[in-house]
Amino acid sequence: MYLYSYKMDETVTIANVRIANKSFNEVVETIIRWIDDRDPPRYVVTPNVDHIMKLQVDKEFRDVYQQADLILPDGMPLIWASKILGSPLIEKVSGSDLFVKLCERASEGGFRLFFLGGNPGDAKKAKEVLMRKYPLLKIVGVYCPPFGFERDECENSNIEQIIRKAEPDILFVGLGAPKQEKWIHAHYRAIGVPVSIGIGISFSYVAGAIRRAPLWMQKIGLEWFWRLLMEPKRLWKRYLVDDIKFFNLVLKQKFRQTFLI
User: Fold this and answer.
1) Sequence spans of domains, the chain
2) 110: Cβ–Cβ under 8 A, 6 or more apart, which residues?
3) pLDDT confidence tier of residue 1, bands split at 50, 70 and 90
4) If you average pLDDT over every residue of the chain, what do you get?
């Protein structure tokens, strides 16, 4: 069973994952409040269908989720699933949208940001793009670690030192799942940043290195299809083989609920 820091009646359970049922604006205000609180350090995860499927087989990943302070629905399929299960989530809260909005709020509130990860050069380019849009934005560090760094104790110690010295209010980590969530979980207490968030490929979106799906595709739940078109060799198995099993999990959960009633 998963235990989370928000109230049980504010969550919707999908495939044994309790997801916060909050609006996008409520999430933003919650994170801003955590920054003001400063302590304890917290972290946010944004599951999509791929996360849900990985959680079924990866115990370490489940442990990471168990201790997360906020779990948000990143993808329309989770919204659809919640409706099928009779407990509709308010709306999608994607990591990519949250990243951009929090940068906007950081520029207004003077919050300090750190970018970790991303494809080589993308986080730095994202910083340049965001600084042009928000001249008052304080991005106090950008670091792209070498491949395999998560297994290098010296490199991880170095990253912790860099982040602590920069003293950010929000750490955005773009390493892909489950690497980014596992890294955050392993280090968030040591670095002491008020809020850490895994944001996947968001640096590349903002940098313009990878084109995000048009808004109309995002709204009707076809962002996954767009990504498949952009990177078919890398993503075909994830979307067309692994993730399709998600709907079986939802239907089994619906059947159990109906049977219990």
Assistant:
1) 8-260
2) 136, 138
3) very low
4) 93
Amino acid in position 213: A
The model's pTM is 0.92
CA-based nearest residue to 114, from 44, 75, 163:
163
- pLDDT tens per residue, range 117-169: 999 999 999 999 999 999 999 999 999 999 999 999 999 999 999 999 999 99
Alpha helices in the chain, H assignment, sequence order: 24-37, 49-55, 59-66, 76-84, 95-109, 122-133, 153-166, 179-191, 202-207, 215-219, 223-230, 232-237, 246-260
Residues with Cβ within 8 Å of 41's Cβ and at least 6 positions away in sequence, in order, are: 188, 189, 191, 192, 193, 194, 195, 196
State both tokens at 112.
């300090």
How big is the CA angle at 83 (ends 79 and 33), to the nearest 5 degrees? 50
